[in-house]
C-alpha cells in the first residue's frame, strides 16, 4: 500500500503524524502505530482500498442529516452553519432553556447563521423537521476573581487566595478503619477555613470496583461519573448509635482499631471491613422502611446511578463464578447495558442493585456536606474536586457508555521530564467522533458530576482537551500517537457547566505542551498549574512576581517529590533503586545537578526576601529542607490562587505517588501522621500558614 493514502487517512482522523517532544526533538509516528490507532477508531487501513473506504466514511454525514445532535456556541456570537448547504432557506425555531422563543430563517447565501443568542444554556432548536441542542456558553469559565467577588472581598479584582491540597484517603479520623473519609474532609476544611484558606483540593473520589479491592489508584476508576463509596463517613449513615451497635457484632470494632493503626493503608483489608459494615447499616436502613430522600436520589440519578449499580452487581456476580469480571469477556447479552438480559438480571438481583445505589447516595451526601462545611467556614471556593483523565476500560463507564469510548487504545504520555521512558496509564478515553455523534452526552454527564458537589474542578491532564497520547494495546508507551480532540466544543461545555455550578476550573497542564496552549487556557479563564521546581529560565528560578497570573502556583504535586523529598533527593534515590533513571540516567550526575538546583533555588528565595534571619546563610544540607521558605516563596507569586500540599505543610519527605510504578512504590497508601482535625495544631504548621498568609497579603513575615 502507499504511504500517502495511510497518511491522508490519519490526518483526516485527527492523528498527528509528526510532533515535537518535551526535549524539542521532532518525531514521526510509525506506519504500524498509525494502522493500529486507525483500527481502534473503526477505520481499517490495511491497504489502499481500505484507506479509501475509511476516508469516505469520515466524510459522510450521519443518516443524511447534516447537523450533529448538539452544537456549541458562545453568547452574543453568531452561530454559523456555512458547512451545511442543505439548510439554506430553512425556517427554524429555538426554545430557550430559561423560557422564550426565537424564530428565524436561514438565508440562501453565506453566511448561514442564526440570530444571536444572548442567554447561556442548553436551548432546543428545530429546523427542517429535526431537533438539536444549542449549548450556548458564557464567554469564559467562572473564575477565582468571580469567586472572590461573590464574597465581596476587597481584593476581588486581583485576588491572592490560597488553599491546601490533600489526598483524601490519607486524612486520618478516629474510627475510619484506615481510609480517610468525607467526615475527615469536613473536619479538615473547617480547620483550614478558620486559618484563612479559600480552597481545599482533593484527590479524585471517582467510583472504584467494590468487588476488586486490589484496585485503589484514584486515577484508575471504574467510572468518573459516580463516587468512591469507601470514603463514606460511617458515623453519618444512620448515626453514631446505629454504628456502635453494628461494631459490637463479630469483633468489627477491634478489627477497625487494628486497621486504623496501620502506617500504610491496607486497601483490601480496610475496604473489605468497610463494605461489610456498610451492608449491615444498609440492612438496618431497609428494615426501617428506607426513606423518600433515597428514593428521590435514585430517581433523579437516572441511568447514571442505575447503570453503575447494575455493573457493580454483575461484576461481583461474574467474579463469584470464578471469572475476572472484565465486561469485555462477559457473554454477549450482558455487554449491552440497555439490553433485556441486563434488565432481567437487575430485576432478579434488585436488592443488591439497590444496595449499590444506596452507597452512591451516602457518598454524594458526604461530599456535599464537606463542601457545605467549607463554605460555612468562609471559603470563597471550597472543595476543588479532581477529574481524572480516564477510566479503566474494564469498568462501569466503559461498559455503560461504550458507544462513546475508544476501545483498544490506552491514554498515556510520551517520554518527558516526569517519565523519561514514556507512560501508559491503562485508561480508556472518549472517542472524539463518537462524542460528537452522541451530542457529547457522556462528557456532559461526567462534567456535571465533577462540578455538582464542589466549588472548583481540577482537570487532570487538561492537555487532553486538545490532544491525547494514545497507545495501541500491545505497543510500548513510546509507540503511541497524538489524537486531536474538539477543543472548542469541550471548553465551551466546561464554561457552561462552570457557571451553572459557580465553580472555578484548574487545568493540570504539565508535560509536553502544544505551542500556544497556555494562552488558550488563559482566554478561557481556566487556571494552569505552575510548580516551583519547574519555574526556571536561563537565568535560574523565576522570581515570584514574574510567575503567571493565569495559573495556580504550588510547591509540588502528587506526582512530584515534596519539598523535603526534593531537597534530600528522595525522588532520585527511588528512581535509582527501581532502575527508572532512563536510558542515559546516572544517579551521581543527577545528585550533582540537584545540588546545583538547591543553590539556585536558595538564591531565588534570598532575592525574593524569603530567608528572614537566614539571609546570610548558605543553603541548608539535604536533610534540612527550607520548607518554610519554599511556602513563602510560592505565597509571594502573582498567581490568583496558591496551593500548598498538606505534605509540605507537615514537611514530609515522601510523595503520594511515583509515576511509572504500581507495586514497587507505596503509591496512594500513605497516611498523614495526625488526625485531620488536629493537623493544623502543630506549631510548625501554624507558623507555615502564618508565613503563607503574610506572603499572600504582601506583608513581611
From TrEMBL:
- Keyword Chaperone assigned to the entry: answer is no
Biological process (GO) annotations held by this record are: carbohydrate metabolic process
Pfam families linked: Glyco_hydro_77
Q: What GO molecular function annotations does the UniProt record carry, in alphabetical order?
A: 4-alpha-glucanotransferase activity
EC number(s) per UniProt? 2.4.1.25
Q: Which reaction does it catalyse?
A: Transfers a segment of a (1->4)-alpha-D-glucan to a new position in an acceptor, which may be glucose or a (1->4)-alpha-D-glucan
Q: Which UniProt keywords apply?
A: Carbohydrate metabolism, Glycosyltransferase, Transferase
EC main class here is: transferase
Supply the InterPro entries for this chain.
GH, Glyco_hydro_77
Q: Which family does it belong to?
A: Belongs to the disproportionating enzyme family.
Q: What is this protein called?
A: 4-alpha-glucanotransferase
